[in-house]
Design goal:
Elements (H helix, E strand, L loop, with lengths): L1 E11 L2 E12 L1 E6 L6 H9 L6 E6 L2 E2 L10 E4 L11 H10 L7 H14 L15 H14 L4 E5 L7 H14 L6 E6 L2 H7 L2 E6 L2 E7 H6 L4 H6 L6 E6 L4 E4 L2 E4 L10 E6 L14 E12 L3 E8 L4 E7 L9 E6 L5 E4 L5 E3 L7
Parallel strand pairs: 3-8, 3-9, 6-7, 7-8
Antiparallel strand pairs: 1-2, 1-4, 4-5, 9-10, 11-14, 12-13, 14-19, 15-16, 15-18, 16-17, 19-20
Helix pairs in contact: 2-3, 2-4, 3-4
């Protein structure tokens, strides 16, 4: 199956919400990733037919569905704020789309489909309960099962795990990957969490401020972002960005000056260097490592990981990700190291990527 957006835009009076988006979504899982207000939900609402684009076309399997009503589109939608009918049992919640379908299945066929989905999502012991008797994770499973009950061609999952705790998110994410591993419909999953996009590892569409800024396999986008914007969206904690001068074949990073040249830098006198927090170390690992210095502003200890927030001599800030618990007092001087092979480069004005790390993973 193929769903194609052709130069789709949406304006709300004087405010543009989506800008000239062209994209093609294929059978299987497709991930939309971007921060809050980047346009993910709006784009899904357009695809569902809940709002109409100001410009452009929506093509499904070669047919223009831009003006097709919600009822006549083969689409199911799971919202971030999961919605279940409080007066209905879990069984009836899951069955509800089938009971109002144009071609309503028999009672036996409905029961068979509900039981199939309940088994798939671990809801079989809960079918007689009401939503108020369920945990948050169980309620979200019910909402997903209801969306799956009617075999729609397009399934939209709008940050479905955002309101769940960490353990439940991990569990349901794994289950969703299993459920949709061999799906025969188009699944669109939106998230503000880069880790989710990377975990799914499928074709990913990066949205920012209503624009589609890059698409491709998630890991490829992470390793080779086309712009600073994409690098920021796909990095948590955010990628470190510092200004660098380019003079006599040397680069700068805080108080460090080191031999570094790349053909893509050209005659730029200044550009940005980027490096992911987990690529900065507190110990020298290789002879070629670059040493720089900073002062601790905050040691954020999460238990298994510590994030050290440093202020550089230039007034810029850098985060180091360390495994384990390493509490440090503010104003503690720190010496840190990185391998120049782990550096990204970006144009200082446009933010366009100049180069990416030269070894396998960023």
């Amino acid at each position: 199956m193929t769903l194609e957006l052709r130069h789709v835009s949406l304006s709300d009076q004087t405010e543009d919400l989506l800008y000239d988006i062209s994209a093609t979504f294929h059978t299987g899982m497709n991930v939309l990733v971007g921060p809050t207000l980047s346009g993910k939900t709006t784009l899904m609402r357009l695809i569902a037919g809940l709002v109409a684009p100001s410009d452009g076309e929506i093509i499904f399997e070669g047919e223009d569905i831009t003006k097709t009503t919600v009822r006549d589109r083969s689409v199911s939608f799971v919202y971030q704020q999961f919605i279940n009918y409080p007066a209905m049992s879990v069984f009836d919640n899951i069955a509800s789309p089938l009971k109002v379908a144009k071609d309503k299945p028999s009672k036996e066929a409905i029961a068979e489909r509900v039981e199939e989905l309940a088994e798939l999502l671990g809801l079989t012991p809960l079918l007689t309960r009401k939503p108020s008797q369920l945990s948050g994770g169980q309620q979200q499973r019910v909402a997903i099962a209801r969306a799956l009950s009617r075999k729609a061609d397009i399934l939209l999952l709008d940050e479905p795990l955002a309101n769940l705790d960490y353990k439940l998110r991990e569990q349901l994410r794994d289950e969703l990957q299993r459920i949709f591993a061999d799906t025969d419909n188009i699944v669109m999953y939106s998230t503000a969490e880069p880790a989710e996009a990377l975990d799914f590892g499928v074709n990913t569409f990066v949205l920012s401020e209503g624009r589609l800024v890059q698409e491709g396999p998630a890991l490829e986008l992470y390793q080779h972002p086309g712009t600073v914007e994409v690098a920021r969206v796909l990095s948590d904690p955010p990628i470190n960005l510092v200004k660098s001068t380019h003079e006599d074949g040397k680069a700068s990073f805080g108080d460090a000056s080191f031999a570094f040249d790349h053909p893509a830098i050209g005659d730029r006198g200044q550009y940005q260097l980027g490096i992911h927090p987990h690529r900065i170390r507190m110990e020298r690992a290789h002879e070629a490592d670059i040493e720089f210095h900073g002062t601790v502003q905050l040691a954020e200890v999460t238990g298994s990981i510590t994030y050290l927030h440093l202020e550089l001599s230039t007034g810029e800030y850098t985060v180091i990700e360390r495994d384990g618990a390493f509490p440090m007092e503010p104003d503690t001087p720190v010496t840190a190291y990185f391998d120049p092979q782990d550096l990204h480069g970006f144009d200082a004005d446009s933010g366009v990527a100049l180069f990416a790390p030269t070894r396998g993973s960023a």
